[in-house]
Design goal:
Length: 70
């Protein structure tokens, strides 16, 4: 009889373990220290200039070139 109970209960044990670790992470690990809560908020960082991204090659020209070779 125990041979049937152990495999059938394994998914529930794993689910309970994952839920317990999730709760532990949210409530225990992420609790901020008291001095950080009372600290005033700083101004957000703003970059001096927006970065320019290089232009990508057109997908259509690359595809038409490959199709034309066939």
């Amino acid at each position: 009889m125990y041979a049937l109970i152990v495999p059938a209960s394994a998914p529930f044990v794993l689910l309970a373990t994952v839920l317990a670790l999730s709760w532990w992470e949210d409530h225990i690990l992420l609790s901020p220290p008291a001095e950080l809560v009372e600290a005033p908020a700083e101004a957000p960082f703003t970059p001096a200039a927006a970065a320019q991204l290089p232009e990508l090659l057109s997908v259509e020209t690359a595809l038409t070139g490959e199709v034309a070779r066939r």
